[in-house]
Xanthine-guanine phosphoribosyltransferase (Rhodobaculum claviforme), 168 residues
Amino acid sequence: MTDRLPHEKGFHVSWDQIHRDSRALAWRLDKHGPGADGAWRAVVAITRGGMAPAMIVSRELDIRTVDTISVKSYNWQDQTAPRVIKNPSPETMGEGGEGVLIVDDLVDTGRTLELVRSLYPRAHFATVYAKPEGRGMVDTFVTEVSQDTWIFFPWDMALQYVEPYRGR
Ligand SMILES: O=P(O)(O)OC[C@H]1O[C@H](OP(=O)(O)OP(=O)(O)O)[C@H](O)[C@@H]1O
Ligand code: HPA
Ligand SMILES: [Mg+2]
């Protein structure tokens, strides 16, 4: 599969690394919310990729109100127009998403965040990883990778045997 990629490079992220990078995201967001003590009101994960980072961020920042918005943009690596399949509760989102942290695993072209931003312009948008084309759509992120890199997440991978360089 990987040799059919239009992407030059692969960036393989382990569970351990996504955990550490999501914690680093939480650290950056801590005390930057609009509430007393810089608190955030709620976390909203963009499913499905945003769910693990959102869980880690909400745990670190002690945010108990967690909701989801379901957006589908890719069929494997083929991009399609993003569509909202499920909305978060209006109660969670309040006035245009004020005080809400919207979390995704990455921003690539920015089209997913552009759509969600148009719905909740007052929310704060955070991703763990960012590519240059979509970086302007995200308020806070941790690590930037080049546009021609495909990020492989641990939920899409499995450990497997590799031949030694010199064969057998
Ligand atoms: O910045 P963009 O070019 O819009 O791409 C980024 C989005 O694409 C992926 O989601 P995908 O639609 O593949 O769904 P998934 O999270 O359920 O895997 C990824 O998790 C982001 O949500
Ligand atoms: O680099 C990526 N990795 C995984 N999913 C994605 N969706 C858009 N870009 C990517
Ligand atoms: Mg996604």
Q: What stands out?
A: The domain at 9-156 is CATH 3.40.50.2020 (Rossmann fold).
